[in-house]
Amino acid sequence: MRSVPLALSALALALTAACSGEEAPPAEDVVPDAQKAMTAVESVYFELSVDGDVEGLAVKAADGTVTAEGQAEGTGTITALGMDLEVDYVIVGQDAYVKGLTGDYQQIPVGDDMLPYDPTILLDPDFGIAPLLGAVESAEPLESESVAGFDAYKYEIVFEPAAFAQFLPAAGDWNTGTVWFDEETLRVVKAEFAQGDATVTLLLSDYNETVTIEAP
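and the corresponding structure tokens:
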């Protein structure tokens, strides 16, 4: 899909946005501009939820703010030591800090059992959402829907497996998902991936808010 020329600009798409219930425009008219829109994102608030057991993803839920500079701050529910634990986390570059129900923040490596999911991947220039949208094998338009108050184009997308494996550390064939793009900005507002009885859902909002994240 990388080589498909744009038929409509983001502005034209915004002016001719489909109403909820109408089929989204052809993917080649939307996904390349969506990739550009996500490349320009400086910060975003995310909510990640995992329903069911996902091998390789030892997190039940997470939320927080991520910046394009590799910073993140929020909360999560992880599976560690044979139980579900609620944690607060801060990530600043290669340094990560986690605090459980008691005690102060502890510095740990990113990828430690106490921080099995690195949310800074979302805006990573090499492996995040923007480059993932440049690694689309196929995309089928579905009926547009409203997501969190935003009219959104909806697509079923098959991503290149190798690129997707860098984005979501889950074992198995998770590279097919449903993605919703805000009709006005073409930024991603929701993505959902399912395999068997398990589902991973990602919600994105509050784009480009001014945030300050510092080591605790």
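(Above: one complete record from the training split.) The longest strand covers residues 136-147.
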